[in-house]
Model the fold of this input.
Amino acid sequence: MFPRLTRRLLMLLAASALLLGIPAAATAFASSATSGVGWIRLAHLSPNTPAVDVYLYSFGNSNAEIVLHHVAYGTVSPYETVQAGDYSVAMRAAGASASSQPVLSTSVTIQAGHAYTVAGMGPESGLRLQVMDDDLTTQTDKAAVRIIQASLRDQVVSKVTCGGKTIASNVKFASVVGYQAIPPGTWTMAAVTSAGSTQKSVHLAAGTVDTLVVLDGPSGLEIDVLQDAAGAGNIPVGAVSTGFGGTAGHGPGSPVPWLAVIAAGALLALAGGLGVRRSRLRLHTGI
Amino acid sequence: MPTRRPAALLTLAAGLVVILGGTVGLLLTRHSTPPMRPVAAGVGALPAPTGPIVAAPQSPGPRPVAAPVSLTIPLIGVQTNLITLGLQSNGQLQVPSTTSVAGWYTGSPRPGSVGSSIIVGHIDSYKAPGVFYRLNTLTKGDKIYVKRADGTLAEFSVTSVQSYLKDHFPTEDVYGPVPDAELRLITCGGAFDPATHHYLSDIVVYAAQVS
Done:
C-alpha cells in the first residue's frame, strides 16, 4: 500500500516537474522575441535614382510609423525597433507629399527577434524594394559577412577578396551574396571590376555580423561596411552559477550529526556511570 | 582507588552535558527556514548617476566605446563597480569571486555598442544577499545605467525579465548577436537545491539602450 502510494506521488511529482519544465524551455527566446519586437532598417542603394523619402507603415495604418526624409544613394538607416507584425515600406520622391502616390512600395512581415533590411535596389528604370533577412547568428569564434553589389558603373564585380582570399566572384549589379563565416581579425577587403578596384581595412570581431556594400563613389568604386549585429564572440557554455543559497529557504537540517552527538554523550555517560559503579564496588569490598 | 571516583563522575557529567547539547541542537535544527523576501522594488532606491549620457550613433565604420567601469540600477539600489570576466577552462562564464560586485564578460560587446553585452552578479552568498539579490523584481521600462572609463553613461531600459531552468538555458538567445545596443544582466534564481548547493534557474534581465 505504502510503496505504491509513494510511487504514485513520485510519478505525480515527475509529471508536474515536466509540465513546469516544458513552458520554461518553450519561453526560451531572445529578449526581442519575449518582448515581441523585431528590427528594420531602410536603405537607398540605387545609384541613378535621386533622393527619396522612405515611409514605414504598420499594415492598415495610414499614419507612418517612421519617415526618413531625403535619403540619398548609399544611405542606410540605423535599425529601428518595431513591434512584430505586417508592415509596408513606401518610397516617394524627396519632398513629395505624404499623401501622394508612392513611386514604389512593398510589404514586409517582421517576426519577433528577427532583423530586416529593406533597400531600394536596381537601376532607376527598374527600381525595386528588396526585403533582406539579416542574420543574427555566427559560427563559434567567427564573424559573418554578406555582400550587396550596388555599383552600376561597372555592372559586375569580378571578385571580392578578404585578406587576399576570394570570397565572391562575378557578382552582378543589384545582387546579394549571402552571409559567410570569416575568421576574426583586421582584413583588407577589396572589390575588383574590369574598370578598377577599391579596398578598405575592416575589423571583424568574432560574433559580429556585417554587410559589405559595393557602391559607386564620386571617384570610382567604394566599399561601405555596415554592422548588422554583434554578440559574444565566444558563446559561454551553459548557465551561470551565481548563488550560494544564503537567502534561499531551507528544509529541516539533517538530524544525523546531532544524533551522533547524543550517542557519543550517551557512551561517555555510560562509561562514567560504569566507572562510578566500579569505584563504589571497590569501596564496599575494600579492595 | 578513591581518586577514580571523581574522574568517573566527571565523565558521567560530561556525557550528560553532551547529550543535552545534542538534544538542543537537534531541536533547534528540526524546523525549516523560509527564504528571505526581497524588499519591494523602490525601497533603497538610488538617484540616477550623473554624467553625459552618450549613445554612440549607429553608423558605418568602427564605433569605439570606452570600457564599462560601474553599474547603477537606481530602483533596486544596485551600485557596483564592474570587474572583468572571461571564460573558465570548461567554457563556462566566469563569475565574480565576491558576491558584492558584478562583472562584465570581456568576450561580449561593450555596453552601449551594438550587440548583447553580458553582465553577471550573485544573488547571494552563503549568508547574505548579493549584488543582484533583487534583480528579478525589475520590470519592463526600469532604468539601468553603465558608467564608462571616459566618464560617459549608457542608459538602458529593461525590455523583459526571464527565468530559465539552468538545464534549458538558451545560450544563443542570451549571448548571440543582436542589431542594437543591448544589455543582459544574469544571476541565479528559482528554487535552491540544498543537495548540490545550486539554484536551479537563472534570471536574465534584457535591456536595450535608450536612444
